[in-house]
Amino acid sequence: MNNHKLSDKVALVTGASSGIGSAIAIELAKEGARVVINYRSDEKGAEATLSKVKEAGSEGYIVQADVSKEEDVSKMFDAARNQFGTIDILVNNAGIQQDDAMVEMSLTEWQRVIDVNLTGYFLCSRQAIKEFLKRECDAASKAIGKIICVSSVHDIIPWAGHVNYAASKGGVLMFTKSLALEVASKKIRVNAISPGAIKTDINAEVWSDPQKAQELLKLIPYKRIGDPEDVGKVAAWLASDDSDYVTGTTIYVDGGMTLYPG
Ligand code: NAD
After folding, report:
1. How far, in Å, are 9, 90, 130, 229, 240 from residue 138 at the CA level?
2. I need a surface site. Which of 75, 87, 136, 178 has the fewest CB within 10 A?
3. C-alpha distance from residue 231 to each of 111, 186, 252 (Å)
4. Three-class SS of residue 132?
C-alpha cells in the first residue's frame, strides 16, 4: 500500500538549487510529490536536487526564473503547468541577504532584498492562487491548494546591520497572515516556516568557523545548529492533509532561539 502523503500532488519550490529549498524539494518528493525545481543561476545545484528527487522515487522538472521578475514568474508557472498539468503546493523559499550598516546601505542593496524576499513571494503566490482557484471545492473539502513561505526568526527578532533582510521577513509574516485570511474560505491554506540558524550557503561564513559557531550556539537553547532537513520535514507536514486545520500560522524551526529574551 502507498502511504505517501503527497501522491498525485505537484509542488513548486523556489530557490531549490541549494540549502533549505533543495531539502524541501527532496522531503516533498519522499512523500510522493512531483516537484518543480526553480533556480536562478545555479543550474548544477538544480540538477543535484533533481537527482535526489529521483532517488526519492519521484519526478522533478527544472525551471530557471528570477522570482523578483514578473515575466519570469509567469513563464515559470506556464512551464510547470505544461509539464505536470497543475500545481497544488507552492513553497516560497528563494531569499538573499545583503548586509550593511544603515548609513552604508545603498538603495540597490535595500531594494534587491525586498524584491527577492518579499515581492518574489507576492508574484509567485498570486500565480499559485489563480491556479488553485480553477478547482472546485466545498465546505467539506480538504485544502485545494497550499502555500508555504520560508521566513526567518528575524521576522520577530530585530537584527542590527540587516535592516533590509529583517524588514523583508517581517513583511513575509504579515503577508502570510493576511493572505491566509483572504483565501481561507476558498479552501487555500497559507503558512510560514521561520528557521533559526540552519547550515546552508547563506550563513556558511558563521557555522564553518569554529569560534563563530560556538558564539552562535549560545543563542540556541537546543544547542545544535539546524540542518536543512529539519525545515524540509516541517514543510512536508504543512503541505499534507495532516495539517488541514492549520492556516495563517508561523512555525519556528529554531531549536528554541525565539524563546530567549532579546
Ligand atoms: P541558500 O543561499 O542556500 O538558498 C537561497 C536560494 O535562493 C539559492 O538557491 C538562490 O539561488 C535562490 N535565489 C536567490 N535569489 C533568487 C531569485 N531572484 N530567484 C530565484 N531564486 C533565487 O540559503 P538558504 O539558507 O537555503 O535560504 C533559503 C531561505 O531560508 C531564504 O528565504 C532564507 O532567508 C531563509 N532562511 C535561512 C536561514 C538559515 O539559517 N540558513 C535562516 C532563516 C531563514
Report:
1. 19, 21, 17, 34, 18
2. 136
3. 27, 27, 9
4. helix
- The mean pLDDT values, 10 residues at a time, for the chain of 262 residues are 90 98 98 98 98 98 98 98 98 97 97 98 98 90 97 97 98 98 98 98 93 96 97 98 98 97 68
- The residue among 77, 69, 19, 14 whose CA lies nearest residue 45 is 19
Give the gyration radius of the chain's Cα atoms.
18
Query: H helices within 17-149, ranges in order?
Result: 19-30, 43-55, 70-84, 107-114, 120-132
Q: Which three cell numbers stand for residue 262?
A: 532579546
Residue nearest to atom 21 of ligand 1 (CA): 15
Taking CA atoms only, the protein residue closest to ligand 1 atom 41 is: 198
- Exposure on the CB side of residue 81, measured as CA atoms within 13 A: 12
CATH for the 10-252 domain, from 3.40.50.300, 3.40.640.10, 3.90.1640.30, 3.40.50.720: 3.40.50.720
CB 33 within 8 A of CB 11: yes
Domain residues of the chain, as ranges?
10-252
Q: Which atom of ligand 1 is nearest to the CA of 201?
A: 3
What per-residue confidence (pLDDT) applies to 80? Answer: 98
Does ligand 1 have an atom closer than 6 angstroms to the CB of 15? yes
